[in-house]
Structure formats: structure tokens, C-alpha cells
Amino acid sequence: MDTQSYFPVPPGVGMEENFLSLDDILLSHERLPIRTECTFPRLGFLEKSSDTQDIPEGTKMELPLWLTKGLYERKRKVVSVELPKVYREGWRTVFSADPNVVDLHKMGPYYYGLGSQMLHFDSPENPEIAQTLLQTFIARFRRTMDSSQNAYNEDTSALVEREAICCNRLWVRGGRWDKRDAVEESQRLITDD
Amino acid sequence: MFCEKAIELIRELHRMSDGQLPAFNEDGLRQVLQEMEALYEQNQSDVNEAKSEGRAELIPSIKLRHCCLLRNQRCVTAYLYDRLLRIRALRWEYGSVLPANVRFHMCAEELQWFSQYKKSLASFMRSLGGDEGLDITQDMKPPKSLYIEVRCLKDHGEFEIDDGTVILLKKNSQHFLPRWKCELLIRQGVLEHVVS
């Protein structure tokens, strides 16, 4: 069914999620490395590596983003979130040196979305993270838009594979950038800064 | 981890990005609701224990289970809502009579929703365009041609078009005319659009 009447709920802008957006629900399913800052009694079965009844304080484990957001509290110590590698200083330097070189899909397809969500966890590096996300997007967008505008019939699948999911959405709509979409997408990142 | 069944429902829909409607996953929904019941009961019991025995250390676990309940609720709501968006699109793509294989994918409540949506849309369309109403589900794309072939259904006499040319509209005569000039006459039944 080639329906042009199906309009799914779009993902949220920047740090916001849209409650009913399938994209945002899948994005928030991604796992993050965390450390428990208190005990979680009777939930030991969630932590597969050990056999205890409770999850002790100080356990390093992975939790999905939705749960991490739900448990995280700025003032109280419930969980602390580790920045995934790709948002840390080392990788930020790579992105600032040449934003086009990284295979974003391999790094984790939700680079921009997950990166924006990481800003919820009050890392002291938040300003640098936001800056890197924005600059990377602008640089890659420019190049992807150039390619798509000039490659109507060529096989662009190699380029598409290397892009993070938000950019793929823009590809899928008619197989090339819709200028309006592209402008919208970049405005999302900019206005949220 | 909790909420794995719920995310499967979401993936099921997300896989069909073109708007197709998969079969209603009654089983999956039931499993999510059962998980929610179990989480809720566990939390009830822990809350009572925390209150009556002052065991505040249970609170982080209570909070975690509560997050899982909210997550399941979100997934179920999004699943049902996205299906309605697809079902609504069906009215625009297929018309008011759905093929049987599509109807089989809908649960009873969804069929009812579709029938009510059809009624709302029909009464809205009837309210447009004066007495006859307007079928807005037709011609959803802008017309490709500026000129159309029309056949005259009744004698209408002389008809002047924009460049000054006068056409004689005699019954059964065919003409190639600007679309916008003909629309009113077509609606009035004087001309008929000939689609070759």
C-alpha cells in the first residue's frame, strides 16, 4: 500500500520526546552504561551477572534510556550515567576535526537523538556535547544535501548506510532531501541549543 | 528487563513504515497487560510494607517498577494510536469499503472506529460546496493538465473562453478547453470530462 495519507507522530525536537512517537520510543530503548548509587531491593534478577536478591549500590550495569531518565534525579543519588564513548572528549575531537569521516551508523544509529537525550543527565560536559552534535550535523547535512541534489540516479546507498537514523528519514522521503525537511531538522538542533 | 514485549509491539509497526496495517496483536497486548498487573501488585505490596514497617529502602525499587508501568502504558497507547492513524489512512486510500484481508487485521473496536470515522467524514463532505457536497477524497493531487477534453451533454449555446474565442456548446460535441473554465459547467452537468 503506497499510502500518502499515513502520517505517523514525528519524533520530538531536541531534548524532548513525543509520547506517541514510535521513533522516540525506539530511541529511548537504547541502553546506557550506569552505576547504581543506592540499593534496589528484590530486583537482583534484572542484573544478570550476579545471583543476588538485591541490586547492591555501586553496581555497574546497562539500563535502557527510558528507565535511566525515569530514575535519574539531580539532587538525590539514585543512578549515575556514564557518557557513552562516542560523546566523550576523544570522539568529540574526532568529530570536530572532520565530521564527515565517521561511519555514524556503526557508532550507533541514534547518534543525534541519543546525544540530545544525554543532556538530561547534567554532565559537566553538556555544553561541549551539544556543540559537537550541532556542528557535526551541520557539516554532514551540508555534504549529504550536496550529494543528494547532484545524484538523482546514482546509487547513493553507500552514503545512506553511513548516516545516523535522523538523516536516513530525510533520505527515505522521496529518496532525496526535501529542502524544507532539511531546514526543519537543522533548526531543531539549533533552537534547542 | 521489563517491557520487552511492549517494545516488540512498537517494532512490529515501525517495520511497516509505508503505513500498512499488520494484524492486531491481541496476544502481545495481553502479555503487556499481564506484566503491568504483576508489577502493580508487587508495588502495592512493597508500598504497604514500606509504610507499615518504615522500610524506606524499598522506595527505589518501587520507583523502578513504576517507571516500567509507565513505559508499558506508553507503548500500548502509541501502538493503538499508530494503528488508528493507519486505519484512517485506509479510508483515503481504499475508499469506504475495505478489502476483506485488511478488515481481518482490525479488532472489533477498530472496525467500529473506522465506521464512525467514515460517518464523520461523509457528513463533513456533505456540508461543503452548497447543496451537493464535495467529495474531497477525489482528485487529491493537483491536476496534471491545464486543458481537458469535455463532451457536451446538453445544448448550452455560446461559451466564451479567455482568449476571446467563442465555442458553441451543442449536445454531444467534444471540445478541448481550459480546465478552470469547465469546472462549473461540469458540476452543473452541462459538460462531461472525457477521460481517455
Overview of the molecule:
The complex is a heterodimer of chains A (193) and B (196). Chain A is mainly alpha-helical and 193 residues long. Chain A has 2 domains: 10-82, Up-down Bundle (Methane Monooxygenase Hydroxylase, Chain G, domain 1), CATH 1.20.58.2050; 85-192, Methane Monooxygenase Hydroxylase, Chain G, domain 1, CATH 1.20.58.2050. In chain A, 44% of the residues lie in helices and 7% in strands. Chain A has helices at residues 22-27, 65-71, 89-97, 104-107, 111-118, 126-149, 157-161, 165-172, 179-191, and strands spanning 31-36, 60-64, 79-81. Chain A has a 3-stranded antiparallel beta sheet. The radius of gyration of chain A is 19 Å and the shape is globular. In chain A, 27% of the residues are buried. Chain B has 196 residues and is mainly alpha-helical. Chain B has 2 domains: 4-126, Methane Monooxygenase Hydroxylase, Chain G, domain 1; 147-193. Helix content of chain B is 56%, strand content 11%. Chain B contains 6 helices and 5 strands, in the order αααααββββαβ. A 3-stranded antiparallel beta sheet of chain B has the order 4-1-5, covered by helices on one side. In chain B, β2 and β3 (166-169) form a beta hairpin. In chain B, α1 packs antiparallel against α2 (26-53), α1 (4-15) packs parallel to α3 and α2 (26-53) runs antiparallel to α3 (59-94). Chain B starts with a helix and ends with a strand. The chains are: A mainly alpha (193), B mainly alpha (196). Chain A binds chain B through residues 1-3, 5-9, 19-23, 25-26, 29, 38-43, 46, 63-64, 66-67, 70-71, 78, 172, and chain B through 1-3, 7, 10-11, 13-14, 17-20, 42, 46, 57-58, 60-61, 63-64, 66-68, 70-71, 74-75, 77-78, 81-82, 85-86, 88-90, 92-93.
